């Protein structure tokens, strides 16, 4: 769940257009696509080859600087080594940002919850989770943590509070499906390569200099000359990024659609549709969070009540509007309508994992404190957000600032 990806309905970018084009081809051949199929190893190898130079440029420059210094050569060699060190620092691979969790749970702290997660993982074929993170957001994601690369599930508190038990199973099954398929590992590599290339584009002067009032003429001149001299590098980086996106899009689209199919097999198709419908109703849960925070209400109850009160006619209207608006979870996922069409083309049986009432009650007790904390952070982020924006469009840095300020207040109060 990356904090720097925006969500909702807006003009398609090159990334989203490539994803949707690839998704349409998968939808057109849904009867020939199976979750047991082998991944497209050839295309994935091509993606890795295109992404590799962006990730290896910094280590190569660092090694070259060390070799130059070791070989001697006087002042000229020192200057060359310094230049190579600057290249190494400027081209160091960037990580995509994640939201800081508001609460973290492990199996000893939440045995009932992890028992359900274990059942889902067993059906998917995923390894046991090391911990569960609750983030002040909507979506979910998986990553590996520590030297042993143990799997961690990060779930948005809004999704966990707003979904039914089966909806949560669908959400978790989708993310766990990424753990057992190589597309996720490739996605991490390409995400870091894309972030690095974006940094290079900014260094090369991605935008023409602006004539600010009172700006220093000499500084403007230097900026203009730099932009002209670095124009070839900028063109190379832009074309490189586009090629990477075009190669990666079919792999990403296929991985997401197969994960949807796994989620429907484990939790039921209705549960998957519920997850998508929650994403379409951002105005509903955002209003519930902000009003609940202002009225000092229980945010979990406020959000669940608001989501449950949405009439079926409104849901149908939102689905029709999402087709026209091209709604998507974020820039790493195909359009929601295309995902729905791909799932409708598949025959689904009964869900493999059903959460019983006793499990639901025990899990709710274990999650209550962490969920309340994460929802409060989400509501605070909405309170301080710019007018007209949504929680899904908050950057990771914005939510981090609110979370850090909350923690400082809590610490001061405890002292």
List keywords for this structure.
four-stranded mixed beta sheet, disordered N terminus, globular, mainly alpha, 4 strands, single chain, 415 residues
Describe this protein's structure.
66% of the residues lie in helices and 5% in strands. It contains 16 helices and four strands. It has a four-stranded mixed β-sheet with strand order 1-2-4-3. Helix 6 (165-179) crosses helix 10 (269-280). The chain is globular, with a radius of gyration of 24 Å.
Write the layout of secondary structure elements.
Layout: H1 14-28, H2 41-71, H3 75-90, E1 103-105, H4 111-124, E2 131-135, E3 140-145, E4 150-156, H5 157-162, H6 165-179, H7 182-203, H8 217-229, H9 231-267, H10 269-280, H11 282-294, H12 299-308, H13 312-325, H14 336-344, H15 357-383, H16 396-414
Parallel strand pairs: 2-4
Antiparallel strand pairs: 1-2, 3-4
Shape: globular
* Biggest β-sheet: strands ordered side by side in the sheet: 1-2-4-3
Number of helices: 16
Mean pLDDT: 78
Helix share bin: 55-70%
Given as residue ranges, the uncertain stretches (5+ residues, pLDDT < 50) are 1-10, 206-215, 392-415
Instruction: Kindly estimate the percentage of residues that lie in beta strands according to DSSP.
Output: 5-15%
Largest sheet: 4 strands, mixed
Structural class assignment: mainly alpha
Taking Cα atoms only, what radius of gyration do you get, to the nearest Å? 24 Å
- Following the backbone from N to C, one meets helices and strands in this order, namely HHHEHEEEHHHHHHHHHHHH
Number of E-type strands: 4
The CA-CA distance between the termini, in Å, is 34 Å
């Amino acid at each position: 769940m990356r904090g720097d990806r925006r969500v909702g309905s807006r003009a398609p970018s090159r990334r989203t257009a490539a994803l949707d084009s690839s998704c349409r081809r998968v939808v057109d051949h849904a009867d020939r696509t199976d979750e047991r199929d082998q991944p497209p190893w050839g295309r994935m190898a091509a993606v890795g080859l295109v992404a590799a130079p962006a990730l290896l440029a910094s280590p190569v420059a660092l090694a070259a600087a060390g070799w130059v210094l070791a070989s001697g050569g006087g002042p000229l060699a020192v200057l060359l080594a310094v230049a190579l060190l600057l290249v190494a620092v400027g081209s160091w691979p960037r990580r995509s940002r994640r939201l800081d969790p508001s609460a973290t749970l492990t199996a000893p702290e939440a045995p009932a919850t992890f028992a359900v997660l274990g059942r889902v993982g067993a059906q998917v074929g995923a390894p046991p989770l090391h911990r569960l993170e609750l983030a002040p957001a909507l979506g979910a994601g998986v990553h590996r943590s520590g030297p042993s690369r143990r799997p961690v599930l990060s779930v948005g508190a809004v999704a966990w509070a707003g979904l039914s038990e089966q909806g949560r199973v669908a959400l978790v099954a989708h993310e766990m499906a990424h753990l057992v398929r190589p597309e996720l590992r490739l996605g991490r590599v390409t995400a870091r390569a894309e972030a690095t290339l974006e940094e290079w584009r900014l260094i090369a002067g991605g935008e023409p200099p602006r004539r600010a009032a009172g700006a220093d003429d000499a500084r403007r001149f230097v900026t203009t000359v730099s932009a002209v001299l670095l124009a070839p590098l900028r063109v190379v980086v832009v074309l490189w990024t586009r090629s990477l996106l075009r190669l990666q899009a079919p792999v990403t689209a296929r991985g997401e659609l197969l994960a949807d199919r796994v989620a429907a097999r484990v939790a039921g198709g209705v549960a998957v549709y519920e997850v998508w419908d929650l994403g379409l109703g951002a105005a509903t849960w955002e209003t519930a969070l902000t009003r609940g925070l202002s009225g000092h209400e229980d945010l979990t109850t406020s959000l669940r009540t608001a989501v449950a009160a949405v009439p079926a006619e409104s849901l149908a209207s939102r689905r029709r509007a999402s087709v026209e608006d091209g709604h998507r979870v974020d820039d790493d996922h195909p359009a929601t309508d295309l995902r729905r069409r791909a799932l409708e083309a598949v025959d689904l049986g009964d869900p493999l994992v059903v959460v019983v009432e006793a499990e639901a009650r025990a899990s709710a007790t274990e999650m209550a404190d962490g969920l309340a904390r994460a929802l409060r952070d989400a509501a605070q982020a909405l309170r301080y957000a710019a007018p007209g924006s949504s929680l899904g469009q908050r950057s990771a840095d914005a939510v981090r600032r609110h979370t850090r300020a909350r923690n400082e207040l809590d610490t001061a109060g405890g002292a």
